[in-house]
């Protein structure tokens, strides 16, 4: 469904109880809203939440932001006309349009950065933040794996299978069938390699000045894999050190990809973080 938020067009979908407390899932670089594992969405719906997924600007069916053709360079090297701050404002704008005063947020990779920036800009609007596969820096020697090239459907599918084998970790890779089915859906829905590369430039630029430190008291859980070659555990720890009260969980054998198997492993931790404000409020009432 298309809505206008923060003066741009965003594509979103929602699941679960319309009267439930909301949980917004924020995609990573070049990912689309269909990239979230069904097991995460269904698990949160079973808990009674209103689950909202959306395409970030410059991805999926949301508004695209091609670089100005009058500027020198091509779209693989030209700096896009937006920043992570703009993307976090999109998240807040989405909340405004959907009449969400406060929400839980779960962000994956770049989506984790967007989530933390938004929670710093408007801490009173976030109940908790769960951050997957994000840190203060990327492993520069591996980021070429995130760059996209023009290709046909079969080449795209093959590239996703190869990425999953290389970067999915030893315990929680997607299955080959899981990878292939998602890749075909992504390509047919909205394949745009130039847009994905623009997002990669945006998040790379943001890391140069990212200052997520917060005293707002929003419970933050950072989940990182011991085998993540894009965001090494040390980078996630550096992020945790910058966010007041943040907790970090290292998952053995986890790489830089989301799978049903991974969600089965970490969903109890996500649930525990989401429920933490209620426990804190109950403790305060007992004092």
Short description:
The protein has helices at residues 38-46, 84-97, 110-121, 153-167, 176-190, 193-206, 233-242, 260-286; strands at residues 2-5, 8-16, 22-26, 50-54, 103-108, 126-132, 220-225, 247-251. The protein is α/β, with parallel strands linked by helices and 287 residues long.
What series of H and E elements makes up the topology? EEEHEHEHEHHHEHEH
Instruction: Kindly report how far apart the N and C termini lie.
Output: 45 Å
Q: Which percent range fits the helix content?
A: 40-55%
CATH superfamily: Alpha/Beta hydrolase fold, catalytic domain
Structural class: alpha/beta
Quick check: average pLDDT?
A: 89
Main sheet summary: 8 strands, mixed
Rough outline: globular
Radius of gyration: 18 Å
Tell me what the structure shows.
The chain is α/β, with parallel strands linked by helices and 287 residues long. It is built from 8 helices and 8 strands. It has a single domain, classed as Alpha/Beta hydrolase fold, catalytic domain (Rossmann fold). The protein has an 8-stranded mixed beta sheet, with helices on both faces. α1 runs parallel beside α8, α2 (84-97) packs across α3 and α4 packs across α5.
